[in-house]
Amino acid sequence: MSKEEVSLTPEEVSGILKIAKNTVYELIKRGELPAYRVGRKIRVDLKDVENYKKQGKINELLSESHIPQHQKITGNLAAKKGFFTDEIIPASQELVVCGQDVLLDILARYLDRHPNGARSFRHHVGSFPGLLALYQGKAHLAAIHLWDGEKDIYNIPYVRHLMPGTPAVIIHLACRMQGFYVARNNPKHIKDWHDLIRTDIVFINRERGSGTRVLLDEHLHRLKLDRQLINGYDKEDYSHLAMASAVARGEADLALGNEKVSLQVRGIDFIPLQKERYEMVIRKENMEKPLFQAVLEIIRSSEFKSELQGLGDYDLNETGLIVAEV
């Protein structure tokens, strides 16, 4: 499958480039990122996204080093532009939401029209950066999927240690299946974690701090597999979609990601390995505020769950439950 055949939505582009969706639209509007319409929907070719990255423009976009001090973006304006700054963002009528799953985009849409809701600004970062932003007061909500291999539990140990002294509430969103992306019909007969160290396998990895990278490293530790033997361990990408596309194009034999993306990319198969818990973290001090109660109401609503169910690959049996207060 060639790069020319892979088309992306603006949401998927924002995940790959790690910028806000609004910034993607601005790039398209300025003609810096080629795009086209399919009916009423905008699509961007993967090859154009990769060309944009190669030009180095994304490094300028995500860095404030080129911005004069008197023009520095702060507060909620920073959130709108997709930047994090040193200024604490108050829990006002605008929400900064960290995480990469499409269900957060659906949540943002529901919040936008809820009577006690607000406009949400999505920041497509992995679990570690999201928790750090929440701890530092630069985000309001963080969605995470961090597995502790020693205790065989998700999220609670990480919230406790990455948000020290900060009371927080963990709310369950959904369970998702994680597994391997391999070429169609699995020509190299990949089965489990031990295949990662085969000399004939080329791997592509997620970035450090993402929940998927943590899952990989925890299993390597448990199984005593030497990461230095993995061909491609240090080759990183920033979204499930980008990695699945790399496998589809033959640039890698193997990648780790969630099942949903495997249904979006032609030319790959999915090998299920582990069901993971995808959960939202909120500061406890905000829980009783109307805006955050609106978040809970939406997550627990039959309308929200029904829309997620239609997307597939979500186990919603515990959606909306408070799983821990840390």
UniProtKB/TrEMBL annotation:
Domain PBP: 109-300
Organism whose genome encodes this protein: Desulfofarcimen acetoxidans (strain ATCC 49208 / DSM 771 / KCTC 5769 / VKM B-1644 / 5575) (Desulfotomaculum acetoxidans)
Ranges for domain Helix-turn-helix: 8-55
Residues annotated as signal peptide: none
Protein name: DNA binding domain protein, excisionase family
A GO molecular-function descriptor: DNA binding
Transmembrane annotation, as ranges: none
Pfam annotation, one family: PBP_like
